[in-house]
Amino acid sequence: MLKIENLHASIDGKQILNGLNLTIPAGEIHAIMGPNGSGKSTLSYVLAGREGYEVTEGSVTFGDLDLLAMEPEERAVAGVFLAFQAPVELPGVGNANFLRTALNAVRRAKGEAEIDAIQFLKLARARMKVLNMPDDMLKRPVNVGFSGGEKKRNEMLQMALLSPKLALLDETDSGLDIDALKLVSDTVNSLRGPAFSALVITHYQRLLNHIVPDRVHVLSAGRIVKSGGPELAQELEASGYGAIQAAAA
Ligand code: ADP
Ligand code: MG
Ligand code: MG
């Protein structure tokens, strides 16, 4: 499904990713952990196609697609969901229209019929109930004035509706409270299945108590320096990153 080979990337002339290799088979959830500054967010930005990141070597394929050659919107339509894209605020764009447009772009790409506003509302409301979101969040402009928790809910609503083939979640160090943690993990777990893969990027082990990954990888200085099963996350929680970094240096 996702195959990253020998990925090197830089920003502003500073080399951040240094030969990263990672394969995520269909149906698996992998976690990337690592100390601050190891390049976790850089990896998610490169996979998302964010401007300013230069790939200097290596390749990323998604199925048989050359992901790095695709525009960010093309990646989304192909079934890649990038969790950091949703929190953009779009004044003047109704949330329901925004979500339905995104969903229909994906449906068209799959050769499925588009859904109309009425069908969409049915789907969205059912999901929103599970996510504990008030109905009026569909009428408001996208993310405008949404609290942090509401943005996270809206992002998870979008992910659940799109039902992506690959979800990339960079849960930045700063702050998932316990409710947000449960929201993210419940949504990811509800999507689990043979055609769904996810890359969960996190500084802390606690998220991985809720989303139990198939594999855990440790990123240090822009490379994967250790891989293991879910128990690796527990070990890291107990021992910290120091020993692994020292051994890899
Ligand atoms: P992580 O998410 O693992 O904490 P990041 O990918 O955010 O790490 O950052 C990796 C390294 O890249 C850090 O040393 C950071 O200071 C550096 N970095 C990030 N953005 C820039 C930038 N725009 N210019 C120069 N260095 C950057
Ligand atoms: Mg950081
Ligand atoms: Mg980060």
Automatic annotation (TrEMBL):
Name the UniProt record assigns to this protein: Fe-S cluster assembly ATPase SufC
Ranges for domain ABC transporter: 2-246
Coiled coil: none
UniProt KW keywords: ATP-binding, Nucleotide-binding
Top-level lineage group: Bacteria
NCBIfam families xrefs: sufC (TIGR01978)
Family statement drawn from the similarity comment of this UniProt entry: Belongs to the ABC transporter superfamily. Ycf16 family.
InterPro entries on file: AAA+_ATPase, ABC_transporter-like_ATP-bd, ABC_transporter-like_CS, FeS-cluster_ATPase_SufC
SMART domains: AAA
